Amino acid sequence: MIRWLIIGALTLTPAVAGSAWAQSAPAVAIDQIGDGSQAAIAQTGDQNSATVDQSQGHGDATIAQDGDGNTASITQSGSGFGLAALAQTGSDNLASLAQDGGDNSAVLSQTGSGNQASIAQQAATHGDSAVVSQTGQSNTASLSQSGDNNNAIETQVGSADSESIVQTGANNQATYTQVGNNLPNLAIVQSGGMNVTVLQTGSPFGGH
Q: What single DSSP character describes residue 204?
């Protein structure tokens, strides 16, 4: 059964969400402060957990979960205009997304099982954009941006891969793609006007 919860410009506390959905195992919590915010949560499966916390209005957040035992959280704060979409298909995936400052945009998707991903963005004006995509099992990815005009894309296809991007400053761009199994984290770190593209392939441990 698909469970939909769509909230406009109002506040639904975790206590209210719990009572409204007490008959089902999935957990839903939405807390919005400010005008014009939109939040939508769709869950299919059992033991899924989804949390949205938006402050000061104009935030737009969407969480879609299809499977069992997935956990997703979106936190947006600041002067508004944060856009966030989080999708999980599979089981036991963990995803967190936090944006602070406004003008941010983020998309995080997980397909498979046991994947972990996080995005943290903090921008002053006309800020960051981030995309993280995981397909496979037991992958880990983290992306952190702070400053102006940053853009980062992380992609993982395989199993037991690890990658991270950290950007601080203005006008940064980074793309990190992993295709294979057991790939180590090359840990992209930049500050200032850099532009980096990394493609990492293979299975360094023979695929085991």
A: T
